[in-house]
Amino acid sequence: MAGSGTQTKQADLPLDQILAGDCVDIMNSLPAASVDLIFADPPYNLQLKGELHRPDNSRVDAVDNAWDQFASFAAYDSFSQTWLKAARRLLKPDGAIWVIGSYHNIFRLGAALQDAGFWILNDVVWRKSNPMPNFRGKRFTNAHETMIWAGKSDTSKYTFNYEALKELNEGIQMRSDWMLPICNGHERLKAKNGDKAHPTQKPEALLHRVLLASTNPSDVILDPFFGTGTTGAVAKKLGRHFIGIEREAEYREIAKARIADVRRFDRASLEVTQSKRAEPRVPFGHLVERGLLSPGEVLHSLNGRHTAKVRADGTLVAADAKGSIHQVGAALEGAPSCNGWTYWSFKREGVLAPIDVLRQQVRSEM
Prior knowledge:
By secondary structure, the chain is an alpha/beta fold. It has 12 helices and 14 strands. The longest helix has 18 residues, at 73-90.
């Protein structure tokens, strides 16, 4: 969970607003240590040389906007260092950042992140299931982009909803290569002239996974390159707050209208599967104190070979061992360790049930 400490109260922040202006100037005007997560989709500095055409000679609508053009690599590096410094100042001590880019800029951004003091946690490859083909046939089809996930420092206790991501992936641990389609169809926003509203609009599915993984409901997410508002739209759906910064008036107008149409999910739907480690600790002795188990009551091992009696102080005693539920289980099995909560069962009306059922009952009342 992202820590709060003595940091700025949310009431002091421009929550759920799109701020107009230069991202560095605006970030420097916001309170320090005030946001939980930053998602940044900065200019890629594509270094395009001339127009790109399809085999039928039609022009490809590539990224040729002025905001993506820099005079040199040195100029781009200076820009990256400046906005990353401002971004790091805004993060809470346990905050984190996601930065997305292509092969044109992601390696330079990775170095800039480390130089700024961030601690890289993962690089995640977004594999596009429907990438634009390589029309000239002189290179591989560019079918992925890379995201870098980093903590504010190497001591940050960043949020990672591991179990939720595992459930999202049908019970399998989430990998660092994500197969998701690029924006198309109804999700692709259009400008008034019918063209794409933004050349690098990200799919909502990508932001859904990022925010589900690394934020909790009511967290504050800053997007310093807000564009047409994908981060804000997904944040609103998932019950998070956003702060968007966007220099271009046309993008702000589109993002504002888009987010206004978004409906927030109900509170029950926002709950996600929590890690076992994040659940409140319940000592076995509390079950005895509460009368859920009684001193002298017999517990049965998972494999049915062993029994032990509950003692008044929350320990167990067996024929050849005594101690905690974990220690006695390990001793009886001749194992180095044992999870007593899943190893021992109690009997009610002739039916065995794991003692973990009683622990969950206590947790539900906390």
